[in-house]
Each structure stands twice: as C-alpha cells, then as structure tokens.
Amino acid sequence: LAKDTFEKVVGRIAEKAAELAEPPVPGAPAPEPPSLEEPTEPRAPLPPRPDQVAPAVRTATGNDVDAEPTVRAQRETYLTTSTGVRLRDTDHSLKAGERGPTLLQDHHLREKITHFDHERIPERVVHARGAGAHGVFVGYGTADTVCKAAFLQEGVETPTFVRFSTVLGSRGSADTVRDTRGFATKFYTDEGNFDLVGNNIPVFFIQDGIKFPDVVHAGKPHPDREIPQAQSAHDTFWDFVSLHTEAQHHTMWNMSDRGIPRSYRTMEGFGVHTFRVQNAEGETALVKFHWKPRLGVHSLTWEEAQLLGGLDPDFHRRDLYDAIEAGAYPAYELGLQVFPDNAEQVFEGIDLLDPTKMVPEEMAPVQPVGLMVLTANPTNFFAETEQVAFHVGHLVPGIDATDDPLVQARLFSYVDTQLSRLGGPNFNQIPVNRPHTETNDMLRDGFHQHAVHTGVAPYKPNSLDGGCPFHAGADGDLAGVFEHLPAKVAEGTKVRAQPASFDDHYSQVRQFWLSMSPVEQEHIIRAYTFELGKCYEQTIKERQLQCLANIDARLCSEVATGLGLPAPEPTIALQEPEPSPALSQVGEAWPPDGRMVGIVVDPDGDLTGVEEVRLAVFGAGMVPLLIGPHGGTIGGMAVQRTFATARSVEFDAVLLAGAPVPAPDALPARDAKAGAADTAAVDPRVVLLVEEAYRHCKVIGAWGAGETVLEAAGVTGTPGIVRGDGAAEVLEQVQEQMAYHRVWERFAS
Ligand code: HDE
Q1: How far apart are CA 594 and CA 179, in angstroms?
Q2: How far is the centre of ligand 1, averaged over its atoms, from the C-alpha of 59 (Å)?
Q3: Is the CB of 524 under 6 A from ligand 1?
C-alpha cells in the first residue's frame, strides 16, 4: 500500500514539475551566459525556481495565496517604499551635502533601518532550530474501524507542513548534536487543521507538564556563562535527571544512537501521549501515533556527529532540502497502536497516561493508516518554517486528548508561547498557519489583524447579523463537527499527586538496554561515559552511576570504569523484561533513495566505467558526487567536490576509481604504511577520506588502480571493502551492502 501510494504521489509531482518546466523551443539560440555586471534593465521579479514551488497555500477564504491582495509580496518591477512609492536610490542616505551629516527627514533611511532593527522575532524557547518541508498525506482507509477523522479515509489527500527540530540549541546551533528531535506535522484537513506535535523518541523526561520549565532550565546552557550550547553533556542536565529519576528512560534514548540521527529522512516520529479516538459508530479507543520512515531508522556515529558540528552545522537541513530538490522525496508511514478505551487506561500493565512509558510493538503492533510524502521545500524560511505555529490542541473530529498530565499542560502552553513569539493573537492568519477550510471564528482585532471583518455583531446570540455564524450540528448533522469525546473524569479530591503506577522509573529503561545489539550497547556506554566525563561535580557522576546500577550492572560498571569511579550496587530489584527487537536499528535492509555516494577520480588516471557508475548510482535513486583534485570538469564530467571541500562524513559510501592521485608538493604525503606498495604518493586528503569512511563503517569500493588508495589507508581485506575488475561489478556489491546502512561487523572488530 505504502509503495503504491508513494509512487502515485511521486508520479503526480513529476507531472507537475514537467508542466512547470519551460518547453525547449526547437532551433532557439542558446541563452546568453549571465553577465558579471549588476543588471540595469528593469524586469519582473524572479519567480521561485520550479523546485521551490510549494503546494498551493490557500487562504482562510479558500483563495490561492497569489490571488489574495493582502498577502501578495514583492510584485513591482521597481523598488518602492513599504507604502508603494517608487524610489530611485536606496544606496545613499539624504545628507546636507556630499560630506555633510545625514538628515532626520530621510524617511526612506528611517523606514529601511527601523524595519531591519525589528527583523528578528524571539526564537522558540525550545526547538528553536528547525527545518521545514511541504508534503501530502494520503489515507489508506485502514483507520476507519477506530477513527472517523476525514483525512484518514481511503485515498483522501491532505496537504501537510512538517517542521523537524533539535530541542536544546539556539536557532544558529548545529544540527548534529546529541539531542531529542522534534517531528511536528500540520495537516490542513477538510475539517480544519490537525497538528501532530511529536518527537523522535516515544517517551518524555517528565510525567507532569508542571516540570517542563525545570527540565528545560536544566538542559539549557548554564545561566551564568551561557555555555554549553545545544548539548546535555554538562552538570545541570545530569544533576536534574539523576535526581528526577523518571527522566532516566528518555535519557537512555538520548544516549543511544537515536540521539544522533543520520538524517530527518531516517527518523521515526512518535505522538508520545495516548490519544482518544472515535469511529463513525461512536465507539472510542485509545491510540498512540507513530511515523515510520520509508528509508528505515538510521543514525550517525558519534565521531561523524562531532565532525559535522564543525564541517557542516546545517547537515540535516541541507540533507532534507537536497533530497527533496533531487526528487528523493522523504516518506513516512503513519501508524497507530490501538488499545481498548478501558476505565483504567492501562494496557497489559502499562499505564497509558504515563508519558515516560511506551508500549513495545511486539505487544501492540503499529497498524499503518496512511503515508506522508514530503514533496517541496519552503519558499521562504522565515515566512513558513519560522512562523509555523503548532499546537497539540489543534484537533479534528474523531481525535481528542487524554488526561495524561503532560499533554494537559501542553494544551495550555502552545497557544500561550505564540503570543510572545509571534507578537499577538492572530498567528493563525499567517499563511503557513491558515486552515485550508473556511473560518468564521468571531475573533476580532488584536496585533497584526489582517482581516477586514464585515458585520456589526461579532457575538452570539445576535439578530443584527442575521444570527450568523450558526452553531454547526444544530440540524442534527454532526459530520465535520468537533466535539470533545465524552470520558468519565476520575472522582477524587483536589490533590497535587500522581498515581502509584507512575512510580516505576526503571523497568522500561532496562528493557530498552536489553533490546540493543552489542554495537548499540557499546555506543550507549561510550555516550554515558563521555557526557558524565564532561561533568565537574563528583556527586552528580556518582548519583547517575547509581541510576545506571538500577538499569544494568555491566552498563554501570563499564561507565564507572571510564570515569574512574567504583560501580555501586543497585538499590532496587532488577526485573527481566522481554527485549523488544523493534527498538534496535541494526539488521534490516532499506531502500537506497537519496544516499550520497562519493566517487574519487584522478584526471590522469583510468576513467573507464566512471560515467556508467555515475548514471547507475543516479538511476538507483542515489546521489553520485564526483570528487577530484580540482573543480570544473574531469573527463567531461562535472566535479561536485574537490579534495579540499570533500569530507567523508557527507558520504554513505565511497568509490575509488582510476589511479591514486599523487600528493601535490604543498601537501606532503603520509608515510606509506609498512609493507604497502607504492602508496606514499597518494594525496593525504584522499587517504583521510578513506580512513574515516572505514572507521565509520561505510562501504568502500575500488577497482583498477583505485585499490592502491586502500593500501595507502591501510584498509585492506576487511568486511565492507569491495574490490573488483570493473566499476559495474563493484557498484553492484557496494549497493547490496549499503542497504544495511553500515558495515556493522566492523564496529565489533
Ligand atoms: Fe513541546 N513545546 N512542550 N513537546 N514541542 C514547544 O511551542 C511544551 C513536549 C514539541 O516545530 C513550544 O511553538 C510543554 C512533548 C515539538 O514549532 C512550547 C511540554 C513533545 C515542538 C512547548 C512540552 C513536544 C515543541 C516552544 C510539557 C513530544 C516544536 C515553541 C508539558 C510529544 C514545534 C512552540 C515546532 C515546541 C511546550 C513537551 C514536542 C513552549 C509545556 C512531550 C516538536 O509551547
């Protein structure tokens, strides 16, 4: 179902792109190369490039944004003031003589500078750094038995906007830090907007929303020096999570490879909370939402993540935009875990209202209900990605929140935060936030009011505006009408307390640990050792080791050894939960779409087969990047990366074609490895590329003289090194192995 839907969506996008592309005029002269001078002839503003044409954003009244005069931007050929008066000079301020002081009456200068002074808005208090994309969601109709929401019906297509994010860092921080990732989706459904504001981790640090400022203050930089940026490897974070032990489950996920995703395209998403849904017959059920990436779940290695923080802090953004532009559309299947809506709201002993617990997929399989394909990049980052405002309370008929105390607080927080972030109560009028349905909300005035409301009676009941707007459903037809799903409220006294079922903070953490493969466990040990090693306070390290002792003795003792501290005994009886294989990322084969393959070539070497390999890589839906000693072209093929600009972290696999490139005089080659052939002459940047690709367990292929580079880098004869006589044969084997993301055996060696 997913494959068919994906192909249908992609087919339609390709048709649209073909329509937008200008047809070539037969016999037309070749276009003039662009001039290096500043253009002087007036011309209409440049339209967005075809790949930037976002799905039509309709306004609240259902019009195309382009047709709506209030939101039209920048149409005039000539420069104007913001009030539309044409200007002939924006380069010089108005002065009393050429060398004189600037005059206060220069209203163009003041307008330009004042607007600039106010260009920034407050960044999000959490999830400040993000990347967005437009998409389309197609329902399979399989959710019908539990949920009547119109967008889940079979074949219904719903435009979406997704924003992925890190949590702790500022807007300008690096993408690849160890952190939770946000995965927030706005569905512009025919019944109004539905926002699924999830994360890539299915559990949360806290069980009650009142603790949110505490966990965020602990994770953010220290208030005195404002360091460290965008990371949890510091005292305040570990102080909090070691004292507030319900955070241990989320923290374990952060310390695992899930904390450093390879790409937003290879990340799962989770609604975290349990939601209540209702079908057309009025029956209710409890569900948890899951996003499953079509390309599988895949992560960076820690060293890659650190290198990327410096080499390409925009790595995840770039990866998302490039993949969409290249037509390798990221796709995610939406799935539901379904539980009976019983009075206790407990499933097989797991309290469904406790957001620090998840339900293993082996106990409640994730049932696919639709597919989302991300098909277009934003046209303007600020207008769309920055101004998009999500809210867990944006619900549609058939979906409601539960009494999970975390979601209850979120229902308040998301509107509240937009008031200061977007400067007033009218943020739902911003194009990216507008529903694609019609609205009639009787909300009036306020900062940034764009609508020119008619009528005199924005109140109900009224007779002056003919009683408009009317209550929906008054005629008994409840289709498309939102109603809170009736649920019995627990009886009791007002208390600041939580149920005893929330008290188990360790059994699922141990389950996660036991479900990991040996390689993944090793990564977790290293992550804890690194993070605690960055703390200064001895007591914090000791306290966290105590928490680890309550999870697993080996985990605790290995981290303790790394810290040079004794491993404590557990303070609780460790349980032996069934492992959940679905939690591990290792072992499955995945489609290759959008993977990056670096091809190292030497202009003077043997280029036989390189062009065929490039085309075959492209044909397989991957991105071939030619790496040469200089830019321009080699053998008629465009060079995308030079030895100076390429670094191993960008590639999922490396191919070595032709002869090894001799080191230029300025860069002395490394000493040849003992016993190696004539390798001293290989360019050291290529040697580094191969060494790193090897260390990060990527597949490396070489043919012909390219094999000399393997020897120079000392990476001969081990798993994931493919040699062969011809380029095609090597590529085939490389592709087979790439499906598993990495050469996992190599980690163990
Ligand atoms: Fe959020 N969260 N959150 N959160 N959250 C925000 O809203 C909040 C929580 C999540 O790309 C803020 O517009 C509270 C869980 C994402 O624009 C703010 C609590 C989950 C995003 C806020 C939580 C999330 C946010 C900051 C505890 C996973 C980014 C700016 C009760 C299910 C959305 C904003 C985007 C953003 C509050 C806990 C996901 C302050 C009070 C659990 C993906 O309103």
Answers
A1: 24
A2: 26
A3: no
Out of 127, 134, 298, 523, which one is annotated catalytic? 127
State whether the beta carbon of 57 lies less than 6 angstroms from ligand 1: no
Q: Whose CA is nearest to atom 23 of ligand 1?
A: 410
Rounded distance, CA 111 to CA 359, Å?
56
Map tokens 């409640």 to a residue. Answer: 364
Which residue blocks in 397-473 are alpha helix, DSSP H? 405-421
Q: Are 522 and 256 in contact (CB under 8 A)?
A: no
Q: Enumerate residues 6+ apart whose C-beta is below 8 A from 500.
A: none
- Phi and psi, residue 712, nearest 5°: -60, -35
* Alpha helices (H) in 516-661, listed in sequence order: 518-533, 538-549, 553-563, 610-619
Mean pLDDT of 301-319: 97
Given 63, 92, 193, 199, the catalytic residue? 199
Q: How far is the CA of 254 from the centre of ligand 1 (A)?
A: 17
Report the pLDDT averaged over residues 715-741: 90
Residue 629 is classified by DSSP as S
Ligand 1: centre distance to CA 540 (Å): 27
Helix or strand or coil: residue 137?
strand
To test ligand 1's pocket by mutation, which of 291, 390, 391, 412 has the most ligand atoms within 8 angstroms of CB? 390
Q: Which domains does the chain have, with CATH numbers?
A: 130-433 (2.40.180.10), 506-583 (1.20.1370.20), 596-748 (3.40.50.880)
Q: List 346's β-bridge partners, or say none.
A: 351
* Residue the block writes with tokens 């008054």: 474
pTM of the shown model: 0.93
Distance 194 CA to ligand 1 centre (A): 15
| 167 close to 201: Cβ distance less than 8 angstroms | no
- Bridge partners of 542, per DSSP, are none
The rounded percent of the chain whose pLDDT value lies above 70 is 92
One-letter amino acid for residue 11 of the chain: G
Q: 658: how many CB neighbours lie within 10 A of its CB?
A: 26
Nearest protein Cα to ligand 1, atom 27: 209
- Tell me, in angstroms, the distance from the centre of ligand 1 to residue 414's CA: 7
Report how far residue 133's alpha carbon sits from residue 183's, in angstroms, rounded to the nearest whole number.
11
With residue 289 as reference, give the H or E element that holds it: strand 284-293
pLDDT band (50, 70, 90) for residue 48:
low
- The verdict on whether 127 is a catalytic residue reads yes
pLDDT tens-digit map of 466-497: 999 999 998 888 899 999 998 888 778 999 99
Nearest in space to 114 (alpha carbons), one of 82, 77, 84: 82
Ligand 1 nearest atom to the CA of residue 406, by list position: 31
Contact between residue 640 and residue 628 where contact means Cβ atoms under 8 Å apart: no
Strands 699-703, 653-656: pairing kind: parallel
Closest CA to 118 of 398, 426, 448: 448
Q: Which of 137, 128, 221 is nearest to 182 (CA)?
A: 128
Each residue of 263-287: pLDDT tens digit?
999 999 999 999 999 999 999 999 9
Tally Cβ neighbours within 10 Å of residue 441: 10
- CA 717 distance to own-chain centroid: 37
678: pLDDT strictly greater than 60: no
299 lines ligand 1 (CB under 6 A): no
Q: Verify whether ligand 1 is closer than 6 Å to residue 291 (CB atom).
A: no
Residue 391 among the catalytic residues: no
How far, CA to CA in Å, does 336 sit from each of 379, 430, 701?
A: 32, 31, 41
The secondary structure element, H or E, covering residue 321 is: helix 315-325
Cα 235–chain centre separation: 27
Contact 318, 367 (CB under 8 A): no
Residue type, 110: R
Token pair listed for 297: 């779940």
Residue 81, token pair as written in the block: 């003031």
Q: Is the pLDDT of residue 60 over 50?
A: no
Q: How far is CA 258 from the centre of its chain?
A: 12
